[in-house]
What does this fold into?
Amino acid sequence: MRKEFWQEDFEVLGKNDLKKLQVERLNATIEHAARSPYYKTLFQQKNIHKGDIKDIAQIRDLPFTTKQDLRENFPYGFLTLPKKEIIRLHSSSGTTGNPTVIFHNRHDLNSWANLMARSLFCAGIRDTDVFQNICGYGLFTGGLGFQYGIETLGALSIPAGAGNSLRQIKLMQDYGTTAAHAIPSYLGRLYEVFQSAGLDPKKDTKLKTLVIGAEPHTDEQRKRIEEMFGVRAFNSFGLSEMNGPGVAFECEYQNGLHIWEDAYVVEIVNPDTLEPVPDGEYGELVMTTLDRQSMPLIRYRTRDITRIIPGKCECGRTHRRIDRITGRSDDMFIIKGCNVFPMQIEGVLMKIPEVGSDYLITLVTLNGTDEMVVEVEVKKEWFKGDIRRLDNLTKMITAQIRDEVLAKPIVKLVEPGYIPKSEGKAVRVVDNRVNGVTKENISCS
Amino acid sequence: MAYEVSIFLENKIGHFERITNVLKETKINIRSMAINDTVNGWGILNLLVDDPDKAYEALSEKGISVALRKVIALEMKDEAGGLDDLLLQVAQADVNFNNALGRTIQETQTAILVLNVDDYEESIAKLNAKGIKILEDQKVYGNQ
It folds into this structure.
């Protein structure tokens, strides 16, 4: 079989050539980064200069960058260019604390769109496909990230947005959709809507490829989706700090995700010692952008836990593969495609006078869909015996959490004293999801 | 005026017993009760007891979400149609209620209907205007 690539020059580069390219681009990245207020000061302190890097292993001499650094230097501390040059920003959710914002100039958007097109091509999508992007458009990267990638690839894009299952099905039927992108739990719901409409996606659509990501899922869940829709489903990984989707993608062999090493330096480190771990061992994914001008990030701690899959891939691509994300080295979790920090929910609850200081977040799988249950204590002195008042309180808390984290919770009021009291680092999140181990980091709503 | 004891109760094993145990220890006698369920996993337990103040204090001390709510107690005959006769009068007096409790008093062949209303004073006035008799506390609590 003839191997096909989107960019053969880059995708099958030999190990040494790839390293050489990385060194060249890392020095350019340092040069760009030194123009931002944050890195300028840092590089002066640490005596870091462009051209310092002769071997890619020397990246370990550079300092790490954390989400906290991004927040503390919000909004423009990492910007290397005048605002005039910047043409788009993407930002995380959240009204408590500073959001994480990433800026792009035209070069950055083109580079991202190219990586996204390369990723889609890698999963077998071609310009003859009709691609329906079932994902929220807006500040999140899943909508526009895929949109630009589909267009760059040259497939016919349907920017369907999230939700409204009957309309999604109608679009699929009207335009003969052959490929789609959605979060895995939504596809379970969509299948139910197909069934209740008396339709079978295997017979009644032309779907042959699904791209799934942005939500924890296992290989078993992937196989179920493949059976339900009669398609092949490919895993997608990305995070907004590294642009969004298109960072790593599965190829036809569906055995790990090729992470694009011409665009990122990939390290796996022990999250406690920050020392590198050998290929095959699990650790925290640390990434450096190599082709972003407006806002380069150096040794960014993604907090995602994964490993490099050792060995060559049969597809011929030389870029190493990462495994499914197995967890986080911080307390963030992902539900319905949204990144959630427990502190965001705590922030909402503490502003509501009727509720006590104790709460518990439980992540569960109900009828195949992952849900976030938030148990909240109602203050004793606030209780007046009125059921409608409690119902209204439940609705109010639900709406406020949804506004904050963009995922709708199931709010349960509980009797005082039944939630374990917080002592120091209290367990605030219990993950009982069927597939709650793997986590990805692209936000869709 | 009479009071019912309202308690926030989760729909979980053993939670109701925790309440009744406190009442048992405090020697509170329950005259009547009503419990509702909601889709949210909790409900409100309404109790008519012989000493609401004592019940409130004891439950409150145990950290239980409890409230005393003013109720209107009406008398009816303990016979077929007794409740219907009374409710017709209540409707004619234009009084609406949110929840109700009932209990019978064997000695007098009568029964008591306890109503929780939104506007207590206005409801009392409407019932009075129709000549519907409102029972005294101690009779409601079964202490007379």
About this structure: Residues 437-445 of chain A have pLDDT under 50 and may be disordered. Chain A has two domains: 8-331, 335-427. Residues 240 and 431 of chain A are 24 Å apart (CA to CA).
